[in-house]
Amino acid sequence: MDVDRASVEAAQAGDDDAIDALIRRYQVRIFNFARTLTANDSDAEDLAQETFARAFRSLSRFRGESSFKNWLYQIATNVGRTHFSRRARQAPVWERRVEADDIPESLVASRAPNVEDTAMRRQALVKALSTLSRDLRLPLVLHDVEGLEYQEIAAVLEVPIGTVMSRIFRARRRLRPLLADLVVRRHERREERS
């Protein structure tokens, strides 16, 4: 059962409060998803806004065959595809390949977690994700960050479930060497605190 069903029905009937509630519920998740696609806050804001604009323009056609959340991610994915096709002539940041030694040593050498360390780790993760093709990055983010199940991701991306599983496996395998130092250092800090 879709937890958003009542809100969606109210929004379809023109209830502005229901629309606001749906936006509040998903705005951070859709922005974060868009952020992993673009690696740029400004573009992510634009993609998130366009996602909600398209969703609410098309809300009357939403039939509930999938959950509202999955439908919204599918729209966000399509908005991202449109965004990238428009910028195909440019070399976007997310397409730039990064080597493991591009991650600064200061990032992995720090022993005391703090705001700056956390921000640098997040930046390293975003940079590592940027090494993945969009075909690998999307299912990985939808599963590991957004918590969607394989079947839901298959519906969002309109690919077979086996393709989703394969892409997530390959994405994790490619990220492992780039993030190995981060994982080791995090584990060492936990042991030091024990």
Outline of the structure:
This protein is mainly α and 194 residues long. The chain is built from nine helices and no strands.
Q: How does this structure look, described?
A:
With 194 residues, the chain is mostly helical. 72% of the residues lie in helices and 0% in strands. The protein contains nine helices and no strands. The chain has helices at residues 5-12, 16-38, 41-57, 68-86, 105-109, 115-129, 134-145, 150-157, 161-193. The protein is globular. It starts with a helix and ends with a helix. Residues 89-112 have low confidence and may be disordered.
Main sheet properties: none
Instruction: Describe the global form.
Output: globular
- What proportion strand? under 5%
What is the radius of gyration computed over CA atoms, rounded to a whole number of angstroms? 19 Å
Task: Report helical residue fraction.
Answer: over 70%
The total of helices stands at 9
The sequence of SSEs as H and E is HHHHHHHHH
Cα end-to-end separation: 42 Å
Mean pLDDT: 79
